Amino acid sequence: MTSPQALRESLDGKWRHVREQSRTELAAMDLAYDHSLSLHEARERVLGQLKQLVDTGTPAAGFRTENGGTGDPGGAVTGIEMLAQFDLSLMVKAGVQWGLFGGAIENLGTERHHAMIPGIIDLSLLGCFAMTETGHGSDVQSLETTATYDPSTDEFVVHSPTPGSRKDYIGGAAEHARVAAVFARLITLGEDHGVHCFVVPIRDQNGDDLTGVTTSDCGHKGGLGGVDNGRIMFDQVRIPRENLLDRYAQVDDQGTYSSLIESQGARFFTMIGTLVRGRVSVGGSASAATEVALSIAGRYALLRRQFSGPSGEVVLMDYRVHQRRLLPLIARSYAFRFAQNQLVARMHRIQTESDPDPIAQRELESRAAGLKAMQTEHATRAIQEAREACGGAGYLAENRLTTLKADTDVFTTFEGDNHVLLQLVAKEMLTSYAKEVDGLDPLGMVRFAAASMADIVKERTAAGNLIQRLIDARPGADEEHDLLDRGTQLSLFEDREQHVIETAARRLQNADNADPAEAFEMFNNAQDHVLKIGRVHIERVVLEAFTAGIARCEDEEIADLLRDMCSLYALSVIEDDKAWFMEHNRLSDDRAKAVTAEINNLLTKLRPHTELLIEGFGVPEDTLDAAMLG
Amino acid sequence: MTSPQALRESLDGKWRHVREQSRTELAAMDLAYDHSLSLHEARERVLGQLKQLVDTGTPAAGFRTENGGTGDPGGAVTGIEMLAQFDLSLMVKAGVQWGLFGGAIENLGTERHHAMIPGIIDLSLLGCFAMTETGHGSDVQSLETTATYDPSTDEFVVHSPTPGSRKDYIGGAAEHARVAAVFARLITLGEDHGVHCFVVPIRDQNGDDLTGVTTSDCGHKGGLGGVDNGRIMFDQVRIPRENLLDRYAQVDDQGTYSSLIESQGARFFTMIGTLVRGRVSVGGSASAATEVALSIAGRYALLRRQFSGPSGEVVLMDYRVHQRRLLPLIARSYAFRFAQNQLVARMHRIQTESDPDPIAQRELESRAAGLKAMQTEHATRAIQEAREACGGAGYLAENRLTTLKADTDVFTTFEGDNHVLLQLVAKEMLTSYAKEVDGLDPLGMVRFAAASMADIVKERTAAGNLIQRLIDARPGADEEHDLLDRGTQLSLFEDREQHVIETAARRLQNADNADPAEAFEMFNNAQDHVLKIGRVHIERVVLEAFTAGIARCEDEEIADLLRDMCSLYALSVIEDDKAWFMEHNRLSDDRAKAVTAEINNLLTKLRPHTELLIEGFGVPEDTLDAAMLG
């Protein structure tokens, strides 16, 4: 019998010690959400739990040593992700305080602001991250809140000029936060320099709104009952000039604005880019919650029997349709785990370098955006399926699945709406592509595309040599079971990405010269095509990460199992997009049918390992906390 | 400008008067779910609302005049469906009391039981429907609760012999129900006659459990907070012999069992069949809730602007991706409305006939099962998409979408798990098919299939002549825009169904002669194929109902709009299953691409009518109750 330990180690990645610590430490804390509490009580309880976390080391890990932290960003993100296995309200509260609010202070502020960090770590200073407004969430560059410099008092005046400029959905704003990191348009000497971040005290020691500040409560939500989301309006609130987080732009006491980054757009995106950790945490947490849900539904499917078979009542997992419902989702969760481990390691490396490469940084942001979108989409779909796969029992709160679903539901929206994020990834890909083909006329571009395969797509996102070797060694399409060959799968993914980018680029190549209305029309008509770029790119990234992860696994039995899981992931992705592969002559009718047949073979092969596969997730059985599992 | 009135009338169907009455009457009742209440308070509130409904006529409509009702089953089902537009807890409470519990008493009982009906209508007798057990939900024939006749006292002894035999998830069992319609195995003179229904008092006037009865509470659920779902264990509970609902089977005072239906299976399914109204109501209610969600998300998409376009910020609905997200779902909801209207009319006709045709009854059951599965699946998907399409605002309870999602979530499970229901439809289709090809050897079967198109599939489910005419008049596949032709669409749907049934039948034809383990294996390997039969059959039924509905529309402008919506429905269904059509040579690569192109054309054409299309649902704007709509 293969040991789950080796499988778990393979999936746990570099911050295994953080995972192992959390598994025991958090299990001892009684973190399960209590549905019988009122909103206010639930929030107080989660705040209490947050205080218990201070000593675990996770909060300090997120900050640099010179600011009072321990300088382990990978550990910090992994620690937050582990919270998601226990309670998502707590995960979000932690993410807001230490990740978003603390991250803004550390990354956008300078020394004088960093003095706040010890208080942020130990919760003596509770903050919130006031970016989104009622009128603007996705398009944050168009935020309306203003911070106007008044040289006569050396202060900024923070103001909400319209109903739409109200800060909205802000975690911590309804009850707990004393201070807000407020994103507002910096105006000085009559000029609007775009959105910057300011430290604005909002409540006094008694929790009452300060003068000019009006907070209110978003009330009940679809889930996350322990998070006090609220709204903030500012009526000419004065703050010292020093409250501008001034790492990337400064205002002197005369009101003169200066920044080393000239373009307003570039400056804004540089600032936003430093906050990448939020997306990494949300993607990882969505995945962690999904693993819990699949662990619950998978274990139930191994216990529950229904309808008579040849030898008594049949266990659910023995039904082909039930295997089809759960195993491909488990495979996808495996794939995302490898991709997330890779992303966290890369983030950690970049964020601990003294002089990180701006291109690597930008790639990290794009990768984090795309993975967040795909992981949260997977979470929504997989947790829903897990709930339904448990029937009526799945609908009871005591079995947790509905809570996991309700709590993660907003993950597709916050830290960037998934559709917007996938477009961001696509734009990055298209820009890189355009650079490659720069200067080519349309005909030249087609020739280029056909003849040389754009390097931008061929660039490996992981274990480059290995992946190229696999692709080069792939069998012919007429060989039996060629679809199970990793090189074939990698090549199908890569080829699809290449084609989708090229054809989109061709559709859009004249947009630059068109008038604005025409250009909008061209882009809008191609919008679903553009979104597909983001999706297929990330699907390739994930497959490459899975492939690289298997190569690192030293236990041959476990590696074999992972190889089957990886094929199940790859073929499920291909099956979901089968029509595309057929329309574009990448799969013949017969090979398309073979995709489904191979998936069914894999299900038969993997079925006996269901329990082991669940144990691989490393959610200890006694922390699943689902009554139906006994 | 086309009037929404004519569109609404077309969609409202035969029980328009009930819909119109509900729209004003229910709006005046303050039915919106209140999330600030505790579970107990929410339940009390919904019970109070239920009492307000007594005088609306909906409860009485569900019962025959001779029993104290007004004999309008179509009106009763439509009335329940309308409740779903306001609050789903109330809809479920009403469905349990008047539909399931009342329906069991009326349809399975005889005169002496019918005396309870006036009390059921006016709520002086609150009941519950105790079918599902912890161990058996989908496979109700295997329920374990026993009702053993004791001739010495002329009583049945109701008993829960195992932990798995506990009645579970029973609406009303936690607090309100005084009496239960209990499904239990009837045992007399040492013989088990299978599952029958018994009237069992469970609580006294004070709400305390009666001797031998132990009720408990399912607690918090994913939604439906106003429904008091609970559990019941019976410890040798004695009830008079007369409490057997004895329309289909009787036991005399000697304990002799008799029934006009000889086979235990046939008897059970005859009894269950009389309860078809539950499924019709759940499907209709899921659709109604979906219409509310799409009305909210659709109206928000017409208000909300984000990101700059050529002339200011762009309204969400102008984005192609947003059109793609919402309009096909709206088209599908239109399609289901026509199918539901047809189903309700058929149900009404059969249930008001003095001597209904058993074949028609069986078809009704199958249709209701399949439509319930597809409508509730659509609800889950569409409400989720509506929530996401409204971003952060969509996550606030004040905008209702999360409540609609949470409340309808269990609809895919209760009144029959969707997977089980689709298999039921498939079995019905395969049985009919087998009858047609009976006696043919495998070769003969292939010949038969190729030569004559099985009549069972060709049988029209609505407006037979019209649909045949459309199919006969369809253009060639090489004609431009042929995919927009209704005959082409109908023929693609019909042909797919035919092929899926035939190939499944061929895969399974040897199962009868195989040993049980082999037969199970054969069936299990084909399980996803079998499920597909149910799905494609219902998709055809729905398309035919939509087609017939348009033919009845007298307003030409509205009919034009409906024609486009019908094409959007048909092409969306084809797009979702494009790989199948290509694998089976029903669509060439080019025509497959044309499907997507035609959908995009339809979106452009329908976009200007979005508001009208939403108004067609007939959910008055002031009852949408979503704060973000202002």
From TrEMBL, chains A, B:
InterPro entries: ACOX_C_alpha1, Acyl-CoA_Oxase/DH_mid-dom, Acyl-CoA_Oxase/DH_mid-dom_sf, Acyl-CoA_oxidase, Acyl-CoA_oxidase_C, AcylCo_DH-like_C, AcylCoA_DH/oxidase_NM_dom_sf
EC number(s) stated in the UniProt entry for this protein: 1.3.3.6
Gene3D superfamilies reported for this sequence: Butyryl-CoA Dehydrogenase, subunit A, domain 2 (2.40.110.10), Butyryl-CoA Dehydrogenase, subunit A, domain 3 (1.20.140.10)
Subcellular location: Peroxisome
Domain named Acyl-CoA oxidase/dehydrogenase middle: residues: 128-237
One function term, GO molecular function aspect: FAD binding
All copies of domain Acyl-CoA oxidase C-terminal, residue ranges: 489-627
Pfam family, one: Acyl-CoA_dh_M
Matches recorded under SUPFAM superfamilies: Acyl-CoA dehydrogenase C-terminal domain-like, Acyl-CoA dehydrogenase NM domain-like
Predominant cellular place of this UniProt entry's protein: other
Any Gene Ontology biological process: lipid homeostasis
Domain of life of the organism encoding this protein: Bacteria
Cofactor(s), names only, from the UniProt record: FAD
Keywords from the named record: FAD, Fatty acid metabolism, Flavoprotein, Lipid metabolism, Oxidoreductase, Peroxisome
Domain Acyl-CoA oxidase C-alpha1: 273-429
Family: Belongs to the acyl-CoA oxidase family.
Protein name: acyl-CoA oxidase
